[in-house]
């Protein structure tokens, strides 16, 4: 019997959709069934340039994709300000929702989206690709190894990038009416997710924004950071995100017995190899002329890129729901909501003068 593929519709022609549509074409359990844009010409050109199958339908509106009975699920790479509207409609139309991050402008919007998905019995997942790389699972094994890593004490995460002048003037991520969270919503989403992931998604008790975030002339955040405090065992974390610094995507996790560092956690330097460095029980050598042991490099190879693994996993979940074999996996909505809650707390701390803000689920 031929494998039944999950039929995806894509809402919009954002640049990130090029990468995700490539991932769909690499995935044996996925097919691209339709794409919609506000311009039929733009959607047609996008489908052609990205080698969509000839069977893919092209529409001049987002709504037409959602009305297509041959679409099982939708990928939504629209500006964050449009997520509430279109993710809710998609769920109401019984389409499973793969939503680009940041998933919403605030947790209230996200709760509305998640309620719509739950009411319709459809799967929700945010498109945080690095979560699906096998390297991520290997790093989590290390975090849980009491002999090699011990007790988690601190996590520090960075995502900075220095885009060109066109981005800084025209990209949706610097426009207050499209993505008002700016660097916090885009780059900050990754860094906050990394911290929560390392802490097994236990929310911090408080979040305190760093003073003096940088804004553009429209009031959109270009650079900011915060500290997170769990109020137990001395466990803390920090993150920094920016559109004003050279490209850097690091996680440093510190344990009572060991630590690890990954330099390219968001997008591996090589899409087929993910590396990280770890060390345990380190001591200074005589006269503190060095340390022993030195960190070891771990390399995890894959045959397909992490974004393909993401859509394959989403497709697997959708197939289970569609066949009546499973209910939507609630792990992904919970993880998204916790990430959004921390973003909201950073915004609240900034607005209240950089004081600690309690995080309540």
UniProtKB/TrEMBL annotation:
Q: Where is the GFO/IDH/MocA-like oxidoreductase domain?
A: 143-260
Indicate the segments forming the Gfo/Idh/MocA-like oxidoreductase N-terminal domain, all copies. Answer: 6-125
What's the source species for this entry? Tagetes erecta (African marigold)
Superkingdom of the source? Eukaryota
UniProt lists the family membership as follows: Belongs to the Gfo/Idh/MocA family.
What protein is this chain from?
Answer: Oxidoreductase
In its UniProt record, a GO molecular function of this protein is:
nucleotide binding
């Amino acid at each position: 019997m031929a494998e039944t593929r999950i039929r995806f519709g894509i809402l919009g022609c954002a640049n990130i959709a090029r990468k995700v549509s490539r991932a769909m074409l690499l995935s044996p359990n996925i097919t691209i069934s339709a794409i919609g844009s506000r311009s039929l010409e733009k959607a047609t050109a996008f489908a052609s340039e990205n080698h969509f199958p000839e069977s893919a339908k092209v529409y001049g509106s987002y709504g037409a994709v959602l009305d297509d009975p041959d679409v099982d699920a939708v990928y939504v790479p629209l500006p964050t300000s449009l997520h509430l509207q279109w993710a809710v409609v998609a769920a109401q139309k019984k389409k499973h929702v793969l939503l680009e991050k940041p998933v919403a402008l605030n947790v209230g919007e996200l709760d509305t989206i998640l309620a719509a998905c739950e009411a319709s019995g459809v799967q929700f997942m945010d498109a945080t690709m690095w979560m699906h790389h096998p390297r991520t699972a290997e790093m989590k094994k290390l975090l849980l190894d009491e002999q090699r890593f011990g007790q988690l004490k601190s996590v520090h995460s960075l995502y900075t990038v220095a885009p060109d002048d066109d981005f800084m003037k025209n990209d949706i991520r610097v426009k207050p009416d499209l993505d008002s969270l700016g660097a916090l919503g885009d780059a900050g989403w990754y860094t906050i997710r990394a911290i929560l992931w390392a802490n097994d998604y236990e929310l911090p008790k408080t979040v305190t924004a760093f003073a003096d975030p940088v804004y553009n002339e429209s009031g959109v955040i270009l650079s900011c950071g915060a500290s997170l405090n769990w109020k137990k065992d001395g466990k803390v974390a920090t993150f920094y995100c920016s559109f004003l610094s050279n490209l850097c995507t690091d996680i440093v996790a510190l344990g009572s017995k060991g630590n690890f560092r990954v330099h390219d956690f968001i997008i591996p330097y090589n899409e087929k190899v993910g590396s990280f460095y770890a060390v345990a029980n380190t001591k200074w050598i005589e006269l503190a002329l060095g340390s022993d042991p030195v960190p070891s490099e771990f390399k995890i190879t894959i045959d397909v890129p992490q974004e393909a693994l993401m859509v394959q996993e989403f497709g697997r979940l959708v197939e289970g729901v569609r066949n009546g074999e499973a209910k939507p996996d609630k792990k992904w909505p919970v993880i998204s909501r916790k990430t959004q809650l921390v973003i909201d707390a950073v915004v609240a701390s900034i607005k209240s003068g950089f004081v600690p803000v309690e995080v309540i689920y």
